[in-house]
Queue: 2 jobs
Job 1
Amino acid sequence: MKKNKFEKKFEAVFQIVLLLGMIFSFSYFAGIVFDDGMLNKDGKEGRGFLFNLYRKIIEFVFDEKSLVSAFEIEDLLNIFSGTPEDGISMCTETMTGSICQIMPNSVCEEDCLPGECVEIATSVSRKLMNVPEECELGTCQDPEEGICLPNSPKGVCRDDGGTWFNDPNGNVEECLKGCCVLGQEVQFITELQCQRIAEAYGMEFPNENAHFDSELNAELGCLMFAERPGKGACLFDVVNELEEMQEEKDCKFITEKECQEQGGQFQQAGQLCSHLDLNSVCEEKDHTGCIEGFDEIYWFDSCGNVENIYGTDEAGKWGWLIPKQESCEVGIGSNLMQNQRNCGNCNRLFGSVCGNETNGQELDDEPDGGVVCLDLGCYENGVRREHGETWCVYQTNFGVFPEGASDSGLLKYASESTSFLGGMVNSRSIAPPGSQFFRKSCNEGEIEIEGCLGARGGICVETREPMESADKEISVASCRLNRWQECVNYNPPDRGEGLLGKLKVETMMMKCNKDPDCFVKNVDIDKDFSFPVCLPKYPPGFNLGEGDSGGEAVCGYASQVCPVVFVKEAVAMGFGGAKWVCKANCDCVTDVEEPDDAQPSSKFINEMSAFCTSLGDCGLKSNYKGEPGGSGGFSLKKCVTEDIEGECKKRMPTGSMSSLLGNQLSQSSDSSDIEPVPGKYIDAGDLEEFAEAIGGSTSEDSSILSDLLDNGGSGGGGGPDMGLYQGDDLPWIGGVAGATTLGMHGAAQAGWLSTSTTTSAIFTSEAAASAATQGATAYNLVHEGGMVSGSITTNAMGPAMQAFSGGLVGASLAVAAVAILISVSGIGPGLGSAGTYTYLGAGAVGGGMAGVGLGGLPTTFAAGTAIEGGTVLAADSVVAAGSNLGQGAYQLVSTGMQFTVPEGSAIIAVETTAVAEGGGAIGAGGGAAGPGGAATPGMAGAPVLLVVGIVILVIVFTMLILNIVMGVGDMKKVEVIAECKPWQPPIGSSSEVCNSCGDDDFPCNDYACSSLGSNCGLIGEYPNVVCEDVSHDDVSAPGISVSGEELQESFEIVSSSDSGFEIKKQGERECLEDFESVTFGIETDEYAWCKLGLNPESEFEDMIYFGGDNSLHKTHTHTLGSLEIANYFNELGQPLESEEETDISVFVKCQDAKGNTNPEIYTIDLCVIRADWTAPLLTHIDLTGGYLPYGTEETDIIVRSNEPVDLRWSFSDVDFDEMENRFFCSMSESITNCITNLVIDSDDVWIYVRGRDHPEWSGSSKENERNENQESLMINLRRTKNPLSIDSVVPQDGEVIVTGLPVVTVNIEARVSGGHDESISCYIGEGRVDSMDLLSEGVYTKAYDRFREGTHTLVIECEDAVGNRATSETLFSIIKDNSPTNIARVYDDSGTLVVITKEDATCGFKNSRGCIFNVLESELMEGEEKIHRTSFNREETYYIKCRDAQGNERTSKCDIIVTGGML
Amino acid sequence: MHRRNNYKQILTQKSMRKRGQTAVFIIVAVVIVVLGILIYLLYPKISTVFGMDAEPNSFMKTCVEPTVKEGVELLSKQGGYLNPEGYVLHNGNMVKYLCYISSYYVPCYVQQPMIRAHFEQELEQMIQNKADECAGDLKEYYEDRGYDVSGGTNAEASVSVVPNRINIVVNIPMTLTKDTTQRFEDFKFSIPSKLYSLLMTALSIIDFESTYGDSETTLYMQYYPDLKIRKTKLIDGSTVYTVGDVNSEESFTFASRSLAWPPGYGFGG
């Protein structure tokens, strides 16, 4: 339909208004952006996306005030490597006589003999190289005895006369074990060893009685199935006294050779002497008996010759030897002793052995002999265990609670992939301190117990195999390493960005779920405080004795801060007063009317406690005897700040601490944790399958995700080498609270953060916690938008339009005024969306009416304006966070979309758009309602309209002022803090309690003993140890003295006494200035916990631990910052005066293991001054030594300052003011992190950085008082010159390895070039399963010793510390050749015998009759390939054998026998 | 031809037989007495003639064997070392680490792959002085009996541990001269012992320790019922093994520290 003229005019006017408004709006935003220094002059750093990201990262990671930041990259490296970064040495011989010991450089010179220390790695992340020759590992053979020992250093082997082979795994032909048959004896040894033993026995080797069978290459097979020399009846003539030959003959059951040697007549092998055909004097089955070295009961004939196994059915074979496997069976089904009374086929491996009869164990027909198959089984609690059976026993309950919490499988997790689910809420792993895993075994009727690696470093796993034809299972148990550290490593260092980031986290959680030692716990307290974390199923124990600082760091992993946002809201627009309403992370606290009264909720406490206790011996729980530990393992604090952007000044214990802790203690004392669950065990599972699965090559899902992750720049896996933490990859869990904090910060800055969808997008996963705040701030934006729009006026264009213009101007001015008031007063968040718009609407109506009235012209009354307001310009985006659209933001978007259109109104609405991306949502909405509707002509109503309008405006502004007075819109942030620390043993346990260690039938050990009490200690030596109260006489408190060594260098002790000491700063100024800190220490004369505080009245429980460490120490160190002191006095309401020296005292109390606390407070005196006379101290935060990956085009630079700072940089070393580039710095009151982005256009870049402190004084009268750096911080960035690449891999792709060994060692080698060659690490297996060793520059090797026949795929990944990566894959085959070569041709070449073999071989011959000889011991023919020659004597017979390259040769046959030219 | 019995002739013959028998008894008695007197008077010479070949060996065995047994016992308690370096104190004994690594998380390095040879060397050194001493005693013994003894100094003992026994050879060239001259190069004797199999088992355990960081001892005992293995894990990650033979009650004790893990996460341990 064609538009009329009026409509066209209206549309034009509106569009002009809109365009003008947009100009103002964008100008406003741009101004803010420039003001914040986001863009520099050359504009290189002007990408808002990146800067917001940087800003977020800074807040995310380097929030020094946050507990979570305690766990940084360096800590991780130290914790999981177990060795320092100062390089690794090989000590060829230590002072104590140990050889080839790996140790840090720092201790090598000290522990090693002079000149015996060789550096083999520059750091723990580097692989071993230049290993001294004497320490190269190989296989050492005793050349005399043929005994081999793998993993032997070359030096010691050769020094003692051994032969060393360059294969550490023993896969060398000389060391191949086989079955050595020596008469009736068999041993599983090497061939040479077999020969030597035969010689020691005086036996000829090899022969029928003494030979080596390399085919039987399994020990059990050798012991059970070795073919022993056949025996048979050997007849001897019997001559009577009259020297007459008797018909009946004497008989012996011996070997043929023995028979010949004794002059007898050997019959047939296996024929018994009692065979009737032999007519011997020996009568069958004379008696039964045992034979030494054999398990079975045998019949013996009247001559004493052994016959068949007792109970064997001889039908059809009477008089012949019946093999064991064809004899009767003692056990049937599950009853291994079923036929004990009538069968003598005992078998030790199956639980019985021939022995003397006992009561209840005897044969039915009582043959003369008194022997029976004795039962070797065991009984425990009425349960029968078979001989050789092993099973796990558990001292307490273990694993994940509730049951099934760890069973969330891959599919289940994948289906919930968008919500980071995968673990169960409220789940935790059970591990009472002091408990250990044990394994029991039944051996010949006796049960033995063996502890797995202490402090749950090892776990007992079990496999239960059903017995054939029986409803019984046999257990096989073993102790294996507890792979708990893998669980921690599954937690990605950062939460990731967008879809890629989520996939990264999900991938790692899936791997965690599949790892049998880990489980995913979903910490889900509030929608904005929810994250998955991978934790150990079997948390390890700590060293519970003296200080284990590692425990502090690890337990601190579970220390979390939940920031809760409260907003004071108007009730019924303010007519009903105002009240505090919780807006974000509300489930972290109890439901309260006042934020100050907020306490951690039970949900928060339970989840945090479960997180804490699942990490190890952390938090509050009971020891393995059910006794609760000390209270220092877990604490709750809170911190209330009036300004949500503000930092927490002081963390205070929660008011209901004791009751909350009481709840926790009662929970942790639950007997379900302590009592072992009958029948529960850890299934051995299939670790190889698991490793394959997480490797990614066999799992499509994993592979896809891995590919995605690879693009993201870091791989999975991890292990002790934490090289994956690079660049922006930063500790992840730490980011949760960091992100939350940032979210609020970001929300507070939403005015500039929410200007574009791009900017918003980066917040999709980060600003979760403060959604409400964002919404609230967005209202401010709305108001500001309103102000802008309100400033738009139109010119009178005619009578009608004049009325309209008057109304519009009035409405706009009123809206602007209301908006300004709301914005300036900050009550918007407290009014809510309805309230805000109502006030705006009312203002618009009032203003409009007044405007029309004042205009005195025919009035166009904008009756059709939206109910929510006459004019709304809200053309700004609103940020939603994470997967959750903030409530306020949502309301705003919704409001923007809900235009109510009165009938007849002319409406042009800009449609609100919403973009959903990555679970987040961005509402870019706005709406504008223009004037329209019916025009009502006439002047009569003008005064009325004017009065009504004014009245409305008065009411509106009165109510707004009232709201301001009531504090509507005020916000408070309540941080509830869970501090997780190492578990503390009970303090001051009685002697009886200590002595109870071991009374539960589990051996007492140091760990178990120390868990019973901090004063319990193990006395004596294993196994005769006793757990005793080692401080039972201790009734005195620890003595405290100053430790000068711990004092920071720039300070000095000016006086000291028994009651304390005084420290001062060296130099002119003696007091601690702003942003400074001092480190000092004390010593106690016994192990003790020490705490300190500024309040002398504080109880020991309420003070803070020295250095935050709740372990027992003799030396205690603490760092105290001037801001902490200032904050303390601020809290007291006695702020320190500026530039005035104030003397303060730090009060110290210490408590020993027995619970004795020093009655007299120990004081440390110092002075502080609120002044800042020093320039900022700048540090470049750099994890790669300034190196950058190949092809880097831009990079981030992070510089840390010890105080808030304005930071600039330049390519030249100039004064601060001349530096043209700026850093973005986080908002902080102390340590500040600043970031900038730098375009890299050459391989070697230098930049210079300077800072000026007190940015808040910028442009003020104090500008001149600001301190700035006089020397630049110089930063050098070096880009990798060549890409990292894997040039070649051995075995080559498609290579075939032929071997004669059952298991072969394959030396894998990768040749690498490019990259940052000083830090390249190569790994085997997708996902970095195993690291390779650096053999020489660019050559990485790894020997794998368990390769068997088949096709194998190897993935090799290399990367350097800078971030360069390369991957290669090779596929090779192993073919086993265990058959000897064949002769292809033999001929006489004019007196030379020529033998041609089908394979390369060594051939030898003997001229004496017989083919039982070894090729290498015979006369060798010339030629080691296929052609072999020797001189030929036609008169001789040549018995020829050949040995192929794999060592295969025929044992008892010749390859060919050549006689006189004939074959 | 049929012969008739002559009764008188028969009686005469019987009487003569009785007298002859008596004479024989008397003669034998005289000879015994004379021999006794001769032996008494000429004991040294006779003893030389009859016991010369066997006695020095027996003498040496009797003299050295207690030291050998003591040495075996001591060495067996200390992992085959007389003065071990790199040991763990266990039940008052310095038990040598045959496989050791001081670091955490790493499998051990074999400290003595030639354990049998080393045991032999240590035992040889232990009995060396005793062998010298015994050689001196032997020399003095013969010199007291009028022999001219040359050599007999600088005894060299050698030991070999073989299946079921320990062979000892004391090499000490010695020449005895009196009426005749006899030369001895060495004296050999054996002691029944299961040490060889115990050492082999120890080696096998070390193999496992150096490869896997631990060993499964139950199987050893199941496969070889004469073996008894006691395995004691110490808090510092060390393991003390005692491998024993249930029949002879001999045992061999050694220590290993392999793939040790500190309590908890790696600090303070």
Note: Chain A touches chain B through 87 residues (CB under 8 Å).
Job 2
Amino acid sequence: MILRIMGEGQYRLDDSAVDELNHLDEALEAAVERHDEEAFGPALQALLDKARSLGEALPMDAIEPSDLILPHEGATIGEVHELLADGGLIAG
Amino acid sequence: MGVMKRVSTIFRAKANKALDRIEDPRETLDYSYTTQLELLQKVRRGVADVATSRKRLELQMNQLQQQADKLDRQARDALAAGREDLAREALTRKAGVQNQLNDLQGQYASLQGEEEKLTAASQQLQAKVDAFRVKKETIKATYTAAEATTRINEVFTGISEEMGDVGLAIQRAEDKTEQMRARASAIDELMASGALNDALGGTPTDDIQAELDRMGASSSVDNELAKMKAELAGGSAPKQIGSGGTVSDAVPGGTTSFPAEQPNPGETQ
């Protein structure tokens, strides 16, 4: 699977890595649903750290759609809500 | 569905919508390439904008640092002359300047981070746009319109995602730069109004310096007076007034020749 960390780049992940990330993603989603900013920051950071350590960076000139996309480091709940509401995305 | 999957789905939906609007998928490639080049220009402008803001901030930080250094010197001079009240005033102002400086340093680091990210994004996008141009020509030359669709969908979706991501990164950098500009303008205004300057920079309204200068002048007057008195009296040499030692009661009038109360810096503009 291909994963993108926004503002950073793309990684290739094998299935076991995806399972690990999904587990952390549940915590992130719960924080987003509860608007729990305090839990959200660390949950996102944990997910980003894990993705970076498990993934293999794609070459710079790769053009591949991602199966999973993570918000940029330091993103706020508000920004994630905007992303999920399709806010501000530029059409290609 | 988790956050990661939902965000990816939204990006894909956006790309699909754009694809649906065009009849011959091969046209999509040319159209997309044009927008990629535009975006590339935009990222480069963004990098330049952030760099400009960073340099302006650097300039202001240098000015503030000079002010802090000057206030520090003034505090030492005042203390050496036995004027603890004046030294305290200088140090209080220095603390204010230092606070501004610390604040700007934090902003500076964040702006620098934004510049680095945008520079990396620009290089990455350049690499992808170059790769896209090659793929585009290959697809157009090798496949019929029908065959090309699948290949195009994938490349188009991939590049759209990249462009959406870069577009948002530019927006974030622009927001930060905008905040920084507002802040820099506020500090420029403060400096222009003299609120930060008048204690510093050797301007005529530098009240601490004026006081230190007056003290210097009055102690030399005292010296001369004492010398004349001694000459007239034909007596022994008078006690000299040192500027480095304790001044307390050795100064015959140095501290009483001007009001001890300090002018309010806010009123001196």
Note: The two ends of chain A are 22 Å apart (CA to CA).
